[in-house]
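Q: Predict the bound structure with 5-O-phosphono-beta-D-ribofuranosylamine.
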Amino acid sequence: MKQQRASVFASGTGSNFDVMMQDEDIANSIVLLVCDKPGAAVIEKAESLGVPTLVLDPKIYSSKQEYEKVIYEKLQSLEVDWIFLAGYMRLIGETLLSQYEGRIINIHPSILPSFPGKDAIGQAFRAGVSKTGVTIHYVDEGMDTGPIIAQEEIEMIPGETEEQLKTRIQAVEHRLYPNVMKQLMQNVTEEL
Ligand code: GRF
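A: Predicted complex:
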């Protein structure tokens, strides 16, 4: 039975990466952190936990294809099976999509298809909806458009601030993402 090997792509704080690393099974599967923002806090987190990092500055590549080719070569050299996006603020291009079909997963802080793209929590907050939540989905070429794997709703609380809503959404993310990751990787292992 082949142990699944995962990479995490992140651009920012890395609170989702943090909780993944607190789960022993997931931590054992993570072999690489990919970051497109030199200096992002998540890089230091990975380094302090002994996770190898690939930090790239997309601006120095002539195209998305060239940029993703560098990532793909690294993923191949580490025999990575899965790409889990956790706050990676960039669309995935054809180079990675074609090589990792059905193996690229994203977490988004809204109930998709509502509020795709940036600042989803703020978008929902300002829209005055009665519910929002978290979606985990397969990644396709669109912005937060791929097939949905899991969703969890939360009710808005009258009078709460956007920051309080964000804290509650992140608590859902931190529980849901590790569970879904484990299910996905386990299902594949059982199929082999
Ligand atoms: C999360 O809210 C995730 O849903 C979104 O970006 C945020 C990343 O947060 N895609 P963190 O860097 O994991 O704290």
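A: The chain has one domain: 6-187.
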